[in-house]
Amino acid sequence: MVISKKELEILLSRVPNFKHHNILLEQYVCDSSIASELLWLAYMHNDIENKVVADLGCGTGALSYGALIMGAKDVLCIDVDLNALKIANNFLFENRDRFDTINADIENLHLIGVQTVVMNPPFGVHRRGIDIVFLKRALDIKPKAVYTIHKYNPESHKIIQEIVLGYGYRVIDMAIRDMRIPAIYHTHRKRVHRFQVALYAISKR
């Protein structure tokens, strides 16, 4: 069990990268400072320890790994990319008694018994609106809480709040942070791509 957010950030920095980044899936390993803050937020709201956690669009397993080392009862690492799941599975193998990978498109996903959803969905740069699809699917699972990262702007923030309320949930906490992604795609013109993201804590009303 980690004892501080800083320790969690250090551990998450060890998560392996993708072998081949799929631009349509907007794949990248989440900044460890952002991932640790999202997970710490969930932990402080008592939504990680001894809970069944689903990580939608888990990639190579950053949020899944964090949930495991923070004491989740079970973690479901779900992604459409089988190669990414293989990396996650190898990295998290020692936690196999509390960890499962599921190769599935989230639009065709049906889960029961999930108490908390954590996710860093695609931002919708290459597939417009996919971030909202992820949010709706997370809420469709009917967990107690959802912790998610979205590219921030006032308009998208308003849309997210409206969707959340429509599902009978509410935003109980939000933080705006600067995220950094190294240049991994041909569309990136700078060595480090910087932009604002919003971290949301969403709970049933």
Automatic annotation (TrEMBL):
Superkingdom of the organism of origin: Archaea
Molecular-function GO terms, alphabetical: methyltransferase activity
Transmembrane segments: none
Protein's UniProt keywords contain Acyltransferase: no
Keywords linked to the UniProt accession: Methyltransferase, Transferase
Domain Methyltransferase small: from-to ranges: 35-127
One GO BP: methylation
Entries under InterPro entries matching the protein: rRNA_MeTrfase/Polyamine_Synth, SAM-dependent_MTases_sf, Small_mtfrase_dom
Protein name: Methyltransferase domain-containing protein
Organism annotation: Ignisphaera aggregans
